Amino acid sequence: MKPTAAGLLLAGLAVATASPTTTCSTNSSTPSAPKGKWFDRFVVIVLENTNRGTTFGDPYFLNLTNMGMYLDNYHGTTHPSQPNYITMVTNSIAAGVFNDDDHNTTEYSIIDLMEPKGVTWKAYMEGYSPLANGECNPVSEIKETLYVRKHNPFMSFDNIRNNTRRCQNIVNAEQHFAKDVALGAGAPNYMYYSPNLDNDAHNTNISFAAKDIQYLVDTMLNNKEFMKGTMILITFDENMIYLNTNYGQPNAIYSLLLGNDTIKCYSCVDQQYYNHFTQLVTLENNWNLGNIPNGGGWDTFWRPFGQLRSKTDDICAYAPCSEYPDGKSPPPADADWNDQNY
């Protein structure tokens, strides 16, 4: 008998031992964003349904790995897609979402902790079209542009979807992402990017997705002001475990951290166990946000990413002082990567 999605999510997770106590507010009056412990900006780009070996088989991703810190033991939390996206932004068990249907929840998300502390945010959705009056567009999919709601976790939260001010932070990626990166230091502190069904490899393959990722990565790395204090996570929602031939295998996925001054090493491997909840815990710890006041409390259990460079660290202590080359693709892959058993 196959395990349920809820069972897969619970596998390997321990029950939280502390109850979150943070209170939340949707008040639009917020202070200036605080400086983070490790970074001042976090960008996450989420791709789809690809095994690690397949990802490493693409030359661009293989080369890109040498420019950052590879998270060798990073896992999706469950199957199918949507609950993985949800667990990136809330601390309960996917807010009760265990399939790809449209779901609405009254639970809180990381946004409820960020806004009162002045941490700015924006969600970039390829192919998304907000409603003309500025409200959120809760449509399940837009077939012409390959946008799907199941890859937009913010739309499931009532206090985001029903709040016009917050809805204006969920934008069309093609129209806004490059413009916001061009703001440099003025770009949002938290930038969540979801490609369309072709560019995330869902309907295509990893080589097709690599073209979109290269454009996004180059757009960021070529802007020195934007990259100051910025950490980038490139990850996937899940691997291909849900196929009958793979069912029951670990949900390991390719995940990579990039940053000029926010990670401790380049072309290196962090073997600590992480999953999508780790994103949440890292954000909470970085800006001293406290914990999300839902009943799940998984953010009281997991640890943040472990190899991040503190603001008090010597900038040259862990990695080369030189910045990424402007306008360049990643350097050729080190032969050692080909020796790894991914």
Automatic annotation (TrEMBL):
Biological process according to GO: phospholipid catabolic process
Keywords carried by this UniProt record: Hydrolase, Signal
Keyword Membrane: no
Transmembrane segments: none
Lineage: Eukaryota, Fungi, Dikarya, Ascomycota, Pezizomycotina
Signal sequence coordinates: 1-18
UniProt-recorded name of the protein: Acid phosphatase
Record GO terms (molecular function): hydrolase activity, acting on ester bonds
Residue ranges of coiled coil: none
Record organism: Thyridium curvatum
Location of region: Disordered: 323-342
InterPro entries on file: Alkaline_phosphatase_core_sf, Phosphoesterase
